[in-house]
Amino acid sequence: MSKLTGKKSLLVAVGTGVITLSLPACMVAQTPGEIPTALEGLHRNLWTRCIAEPQGLVLDYTLGGDPDLLPTAEEATAGKPNAISWWTPLENGAFFTGLYLDGILRRQALTKSGEDREKARRLARGLMLCASVGTTPGFVARGVLADGKSHYGIGSDDQTAPWFYGLWRYLRSDIHNLEEKKEITAKLVEVAEAIRANGWQMPCDPVGILETGQFRGGWNGHDYRSVTRLLFVARIIFELTGDPGWKATYEQALVEKLPNGLTRPEVAARGIPGEWEEHPQLAIDHIYIYVVSQAMMAELRTLEGRPEVTDLYTASLRTSAQAVAHQMPPELTRLGTKPFRTDWRVMNTLWQPQSSVGEAVDIALKQLTLWQNGGRNIEAQVLREPFCAAWISALSPEAHREEILTQLERSFDTVAWDKVSSSAGFFGECAWYAASEKASPRAEAVP
Hints:
Largest sheet: 2 strands, antiparallel
Mean pLDDT: 90
Radius of gyration: 21 Å
CATH architecture: Alpha/alpha barrel
Structural class: mainly alpha
CATH topology: Glycosyltransferase
Number of helices: 17
Low-confidence stretches: 1-32, 442-447
Order of helices and strands: EEEEHEEHHHHHEEHHHHHHHHHHH
CATH class: Mainly Alpha
């Protein structure tokens, strides 16, 4: 069991400065491999209420024991409530599962538990399922229903990036066997090659009257998310295959000048704030879409041995961590002040056939206004965003790790997790595992 520590001061980097927050006593793990009791409670709650079985995918919110809350095969095929599956419990199956797999792998490295090894395998199988159900090369489904095949046809760059990251991390562990390694590597290469052939755009699968040949999101832009994800995928495919073509893709991606006059590593070095300059609305409640890019930068930093590139990757990690650190303290008193609605089918009243990605997005945004899900919004703001800020901060080589652990454990110990409807706690769980590790060293030489 963790021991109580005395009152602490939390140093939080904000921009170029530091503020000090006074924290009350809370639970801090004292020995390697020890996980706080409150975190164990959160972990059990997530696996009991927020993992879709048999798929092995993370749900957006709990079904409350009612499997009928999942869309039916007919609804998925028609694209109800919308063809993107926004607002359904399986809206972010590939996204959340890819990230949570990283957390479970870090957890298993601490616990050495056979149960945790099996959990990692289940999540990896879920990710593989997401890339095995479509008919369009390069398509990664947001989620798959219990029949193992039914799915919605519009994915995204935010779904596909964690899919790559989670499976890469799985292959870097000692959990997979040789057969799995071959199968997963082949699938990663297959998807990557299709996306590269599409000009780094994310393809859609047919859904309803929406036909193949459409895309949603991509990594061919000059924004922070695009450059981090393209660099990462190009590099890991080369690492996995030794294919000189992928090495050339990575090297070209490093030096190519983008329309803004910068190279991709230079854009990455500007971190999350560089993207917020163009899209300030994302700074309000969208930190969660940046976790995977920070994690990718951390991986690239360990793979890249040239100081002139590594320094830019390090700057990226540092700058992004500084940008979000002020959002870490959660406002837990707001939890439960509004009901969390799970009756997503009320939005079907606004449904109509969608022939394009744009039409699907328009309908989905109207449906969200109709839903008026105040509890969902609060859990995102109070739990998801601060936990993601902590995770991003923990991935910086200069992170104040003990202070991050202290703050996280205070939250874990305060929240009644069986009363929380969303799966947002998994971001905090993953942040704790990341903060409990030492900073990754630089690579010594170019592979």
